[in-house]
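re: ur question from earlier - yeah i can do the single chain one, its not a big deal. heres the input i used so u can compare w yours
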Amino acid sequence: MTVTDELRAVVRAYLADRPAAPWPAFARDLGAAGLAIPEKYGGAGCGPAETAVVAGELGRTLSPYPFLQSAVLAVEALKAGGDEAAMARLLPALADGSATATVVLPGEGDLTLRDGLLTGVVPYAPAGDVVLAYADGLLVEAVPTRRVTHPTMDESRPLAELSFDHVQVRPAGDGAAWSRVRDLGIAALAAEQVGGAERCLEMAVEHAKLRHQFGRPIGSFQAVKHKLADLLLLVESARSAARAAAESESFAAIAGSYCTEAYLTAAGENIQVHGGIGVTWEHPAHRYLKRATSDAQLFCPPQAHRERLAAYVFPGPADGSAAQ
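and the output i got, formated as C-alpha cells:
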C-alpha cells in the first residue's frame, strides 16, 4: 500500500465515523488543513498528490469543508506570493483550522487597488474568514466592507458577494504566479469531482443489483449494463485526467474540462438508474447533481478550459492567437 493509499483510507474512515465533525476538528485530527503548508508554519509539507487524495474523499461525501478555497487556493497563493511576513501571519492559523481563507482570482471581481485602498465588488466568492485578492499584480489581504451570503443550489458550498469600499489592504505577496495557483485549484477540484463521480457510479451499481423488475435485478438488463459500463469508462478516464493534473498543473485545463463533464454525466446517469426514487428529496442522488452543476461554474466552465487548450493544440500565427 502506497502513502497516498494509506492517506485515502484514513480520510475515508474518519469521514465515515465523524461525518459531522467541525472543520477545526478535521484539521486537527488529520492535519488536512495544513497538508500543503511547509512544516515551519505548522503544516505537513506535502504536495498536490496528497491534496488530491483528500479532495477526492471530500467529494465522495459532499463534504461542506472549506478545503478547496482555504487549504488549497489560499495556501498556494500565499506560498506563491513569497511574502514571509504574510505567511508567518496567516499560514499557522490555516494549518490548525482556527481560521479559513478564500481567494479572489483576477477576473472574478471588478477590483481596483489605488494608494493601498481596495475598491470593487466580487459577485461570488467561496466562504472564508480571511479574504485574499489579486489586484494590480499583487496579492493582498482585505476585510470586506460588506458580505452578502447567496442562497445556493448546492448548500454544501456557500457563496457570498464581497464589497470593498476603499478598504485598507495588507500586503500578502507578489501576484505574478496567480495562474499557477488557479491551476492547482482546478486540479484539486478535478480530484473532488472524480470522488463524487465515483460515488455516483457505486450508488448506481448497488441499486442495479438490488432493484428487481420482471423477477430479476435491473442490472441484468442489457441497456442498464451498457449504461453502467460506459459510466465506468468515463469515471476511470476522469481519474486519469485528475491524476495527471495533480502531477503537473500543465494538465489542469484537460482535467477541468473532462472531469467536470464526467461528474455531470455520472450524477445524471445515477438518477436515471435509480428511476423515480432518484429525484426524491430523501435520496442523496440529487445532491450529487447539484454539486456537479455548481462545480461546473467554479473557475470556468468546460468550454473555457477547452479554449485554453486550443492555443496549444492549434497554434496560431506569431501573435499567439489560436488557429480557427
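The first strand starts at residue 101 and ends at 104. not sure if urs matches, ping me
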